[in-house]
Fold these 4 entries.
Entry 1:
Amino acid sequence: MTLPKQAPPGIDPQIPWCSELRCLRCRASLRTVQSELVCETCAAAYPIDCGIPRFVPADNYADGFGYQWNRHRLTQLDSHSGTTISRDRVMKASGWTAEQLHGKSVLECGSGAGRFTEVLCETGAIVTSFDISSAVHANAASNGRFPNLRLFQASIYDLPLPEESFDFLFCFGVIQHTPDVERTFKAMFRYLRPGGRFCIDVYAAPISYLHPRQLLRPLTKRIPPARLYSIVDETAPKLLPLAMGLSDVPVAGPCLARLVPVATHRHLNLRDKRTIRDWSVLDTFDWLAPRYERPQPRRRLQRWAMDLRLRSFRVERHRGLYVIRGVK
């Protein structure tokens, strides 16, 4: 997908907050030199791509996510849909309030198009957000208006940030799609202060393995994103009425609807037909495209939390997800 040729409105190409970033090689401070961030110690250089610092190659295993979020930049933003779906999900799952977040530093790991970035920024928190994919450009276009947003492109395994420097850690819809889920989970906590609060979700095992998309993924994850998207865009709207109809069957409806590999979002009570269609296409593609999908069992999440000696953590089931939250 063609990306903007210049920084979106609100994104300063000079990166005034670059002093908060660190060199991946030697961990020294960075400074802006024309279209790059340059290390003050070892002279390593990192490109500034359309106003966004980039610390990974432009092409990587998450290209499908970059494609989908640039196609659906606005679809799930509350400010676009006229709902509070994203805000409600953040606040309900985390147990945080806007008052608790205001003025605090928040690290958002894996921003996608920025549906949750918008919610976090609106609280008045100082939000540092990143994604490994080109989805950061969609996020910048939508949320670059927030002066309290720091946005860059990087790998969750190697972040250009000082350790133990954030008050809150937030990560939704990410860790099951990374190459090593345990490593991903544990790596994030390097950047959370002792006493800092966290909220992370992950596809729940074993229930996620029972979804019919698992029969299709061995094939679909190998199809180039643009080609797969065109297939989904054509077929999902045709399958959607069938899935919705099956879901209305008394008692067995939800189970029957799961036999149709298309996202319905019946539980969200979306009203507008175009919105329902767009969400269905987006999330059906999201099911089928990722190179990695590794749901996790509750017991494993609990073990990882104990390995890190996290305090007061809880693991809760939210539909097909586990949400783990607590204090470092």
Entry 2:
Amino acid sequence: MLSKRLVPTAVVCVLLATGATACSSGTTGASAAPPATPSAAPSASPVQTLAVDTLSAKEISGQAHAAMKTVTAMKASGTFSSEGSVTTVDLAADKQGNCAGTIGHPGQGTAEVLSTGTTTWLKPDEAFWKNIGKSLGGSEKQIAVVTQLFGGRYLTGEGSDQSLTEAAFMCGMVKAITGDDGTDEVTSEKGTAGTTGGVKTFSIVVADAEGTKTTLHIATEGKPYLVAMEQKEGDSPAELTFSDFDKPVTVQQPPADQVIDLAAFTQQLKKG
């Protein structure tokens, strides 16, 4: 199952440090300027571009932070790790907490994730069910029984299963990355121009107080969104891409007869 420290270290420290970098650098000068936006004029008008040649790293990241604060929804895909455990995510979420996608571990199963902001559901595959059973202290026999009994259903509820807690946390990624107050101490330097997922980008390399470096890839045409980040150093390496900005996220609550509450699951697990 997912490590209790996995999401906080790999996502909060990475994504919020990203926001802090940009926000801290956006307190003065051009870094406080509003994000570049596509012209509302006819298509013949040129698309605004980020002036990477004249702006400093802090100014570029400041404009990126300003742009990200306006995002209402987005999709995050990629991997992050902690304590040797790798997590894969492919989740679309909005500021209201609506969320849909998948989360999992290579070799340990994958679960479909749905969330309305107030309730989160997981639909684990067989391997993921087994790992939930292990995390709750079930024996192999007990796990086999509940996996057979509840396979294909959604799991919800509050309790000791960390996977539900972390899935809900991940679904709050939009609020996290767009709402940071920029209190962290970071440094930044300019990188290079490139293309990320078909989007023209410019990279900024930021370092936190411990010197751990993260590379941010910022769109240079239209709004200067953060479209990718990669952190190869430190205890929580991560590679994430961001897309589908402002695309609505629609979540349909699973039918009641297809949902099992965590408390009921745990009780059944003990019975075996």
Entry 3:
Amino acid sequence: MPAFGMLVVLGLGIVAVSAIAARWLTLARELWAAAFVVLGIAVAWIVNFDLFAEWGLAVRSPALGIVFTGVAVAGAAYFWREILLYFEGLSRKHADEAQTIERTHHLRRAA
């Protein structure tokens, strides 16, 4: 269970770090996935985290275990991003952002 928690927390951390580069990553949806994979593998190498060794699964090489763990962390990051975007949309719907913008910029309704 601690290994799964580590996977989830590292994924959330990658989403937070990639938010810094969001301006360049919004060009294409594939760039988000590529950035998450690169960051996931880098983080797994930096912390030397092999999820498969933690679970007692045999992998041909410890290096491959770390790389596959990085890909799993990237998958967790992508999942976190979608969940956070969902809640952001709910928040906008609940707050009725259009009325807020109209009031702050002193706009009149068009229709």
Entry 4:
Amino acid sequence: MRRRHFLTATTGTTAAVVVPLVAQHSVGTSDVIRLRSGVDALVALDATRGGHDELERTALAGAAEALEKQKLGASQRIRRRLFSVAADYTSMADWSAIDAKRTNRAQSLLDRSLYLAGMAKDSVAELDAWNMYSILAHHRGAYAEAVDSGHAAQATAIARRDPFYASLAHARTALGHSNLGERQAALRSLGCAQEALGNASLDDPRPSWTAFYGPGELLALTAIVRDKIGEPAEAEAASHRALAGIPKEFRRNRALATARLALAQLHQRDIDQTCATASTVFTMMAGHPIPGRMRSLLGDYYRDLITLAPDASVAREWGDRYRTEWSRA
């Protein structure tokens, strides 16, 4: 079964994630396992809360610890595994910066992730880095670069060997094509992603960061592609199916899928329904600040809303709620 580790601390804060400390001695497998458990805890926290500064700091501390232990590794195999752990911690810091919309910070961290993945000779970590390069390029508006990064992810050894990873890489490529207005290329890549995931074994053991991806998440990405290429009805249908399939523990991803559902409804001019849907995003994220990436998406939604329905009372009410929630975040 795929590993999914969750925090048990009642506070639910990043401070509850403790990077295990190990004694200064020759480092072995047990040390690698202890360090990797910290990565798993951060992955679980991100699924619920999203990226934030403290998560990034904790992840970078974990990477530094792994690299210090790498110098004491008992064998070349152990040292490579510690490079891999450091790559995974750095990738968590990368992702936290992307989710918090700190794009310049994320770029430098991604370069470091790719370097560490190469030192580890870890194809999964390499794919993870290219996957996030594609996401970052999307948020920077560099859509051709997002497509190129998707192709780089497809070319990794793990994507050639395991259709699960190939599916994720094709899905990222589809998003890039859709943002470029390349409808046929987007649908072709999306079809490849769907076919590959259908051929994948979802129960094979994989790193904890991959737990977010499955049929539900692919449907959420499908909804974005369909909306971008001008098919909001198909996007709405995909969003509903995504929300039925994304596990409850992935609260941040479910909130993002809900925001995308609201956008699809808005693009069909269903003003009352879209405002009701968009309001649930705030309820879903209650108790935590809204991550920067989600704040940006809601900002895009609000701009579309006031453009398409500037005089609707329900739109004005939603705008009041949006400004209130924004000031709290």
